[in-house]
Amino acid sequence: MQLPPKVTDRAFARLAEIGAGDQGQALRIAVEGGGCSGFQYEIKLDEPAQDDVVLEGQGQKVVVDSVSLPFLTGATIDFTEELIGARFTIENPNASSSCGCGTSFSM
């Protein structure tokens, strides 16, 4: 059994702050081929689909499609605010390397 990714309270709080759930939107985390390291994350607001794994907290939802799920086993989805800007981040124990842009990784 694969462990679904964890979502931090900060990430759920940010979704609540931007009113995602109120608009019927969830934060979609997907993994696609491409990027500078072989795979890249796609992070966007989207409507939940039927085959999604839904992670809920604080009245908000984060969704992962069934194809992306194995790549995100045991990962942590967070929200960080730094000098360069605020963004959702993914800490992925499956990634053997990642690149400076923070959205691409290899396994």
Overview of this structure, please?
It is a single chain. By secondary structure, the chain is mostly beta strands. It has a single domain (6-95), classed as HesB-like domain (Hypothetical Protein Aq_1857, Chain: A), CATH 2.60.300.12. It is built from 1 helix and 9 strands; from the N terminus they run βαββββββββ. The strands form 2 sheets. Strands 4-5-2-3-9-8 form a 6-stranded mixed β-sheet, with helices on one face.
Can you summarize this structure?
The protein is mainly β. It contains 1 helix and 9 strands.
User: Measured on Cα atoms, how large is the radius of gyration?
Assistant: 13 Å
Number of domains: 1
The total beta strand count reads 9
Classified in CATH, the superfamily is: HesB-like domain
Shape: globular
CATH topology: Hypothetical Protein Aq_1857, Chain: A
Structural class: mainly beta
CATH class: Mainly Beta
Low-confidence stretches: none
> Helical content, roughly?
under 10%
The chain-level mean pLDDT equals 89
Query: Which sequence of strands runs across the widest sheet?
Result: 4-5-2-3-9-8
* CATH architectural label: Sandwich
Strand content: 35-45%
Largest sheet: 6 strands, mixed
H/E element sequence: EHEEEEEEEE
Taking the alpha carbons of the first and last residues, their distance comes to 19 Å
Separate helix tally: 1
Keywords:
44% strand; mainly beta; Hypothetical Protein Aq_1857, Chain: A; globular; 1 helix; single chain
